[in-house]
Amino acid sequence: MADNTNEKVLVTETAAEPVIDKHYQLIETKRAAEIIDKAMNLAREEIPKGAVATYIPELGKMDPHQLGICLYPLKGDKICLGDYDTRFTIQSVSKVIMLIVALEVCGLKAVFRKVGMEPSGEAFDSLVELDVSNSKPYNPLINSGALAVCGLLLPEVSFQDMIRYTRNVCSDMDIELNESVFDSEMKTCSRNRSIAYLLESKGIITTDVEDTLRFYTKMCSMNVTAESLANLGKKLANDGVCVVDGKRYMSSRTARIAKTLMLTCGMYDGSGTFAIKVGIPTKSGVGGGLLSVSDKRAGIGVFGPALDAQGNSIAGCKLLREISNKLRLNLFYDPEWDKENADENSDETVLKDMQARSVM
Ligand code: GLN
Question: Which residues are identified as catalytic?
Fold first, then answer.
């Protein structure tokens, strides 16, 4: 898949109509698909600047040139391009699922007694802040926080319960444990093991440390696709309710907390930059997956295993940035405001405009 051909493009024709209406709905699937297709080609140019994760040896075998996306609007047809149905391990995207289940099963107070709600500004597998202060892990979307959440979950649910919920919330009954990735990570997870024992020493993990570590690593080793992540994103975008079967998969409050933490902490020490450039709550994983939630509009799943320095999909981030701009999916975008300010994004025009309006 190193070239720019997209044999899996489902829709290619163009249309002159706007792609999003004033109710934030994507209304022009064909046009949107063409925009996404162009964005894919741009995003592919980033791939040589990244690399697949090798600290889990099995992940090092992935083809870095793969790139796929599924964008599933709340109303309208899903758009699937490139390697959207290729299986890869969910890795840290599963931290969102662990958080959802912990909030539902153990409750908000129990969860935030163990972990904070703040971005860490540190690498995903950092131990630094944990040891120098008495603090709990910064948030549930970094390794230390997710391990603490696993300690809460372990007495309540089995891994089988978790995989069943994951299949349902991702509308993908083919999700399985990838045994070789799981074995590979268990052999090389000394950092996570250190974090888990440190958490035990601080009284944050009170379950058996090795069992907790195995549970966490299994959750990271589930095989998903970009399409499964888009299905999960779509339920989060719709307040926890599936548009298709009308079932509620989590409470409103849980959906809101998950989305807020994805926006502030989902991309590790790249979270602030990503929020500025893309403005869509997103959670990454070192398997190359990205789960994005364009609230009230669409769920988006991306797969691109070449990673940047923070461990986020390098082409996936570029792809989301392009799509966010072109399809106006930024959280703070309002179609009504945009009408008068078509050119407002150019740095050169801003100062002149401000002077003309006598605000500067
Ligand atoms: N399983 C991986 C780990 O714990 C997940 C990390 C990630 O996806 N950022 O290191």
Answer: 92, 95, 216, 268, 286
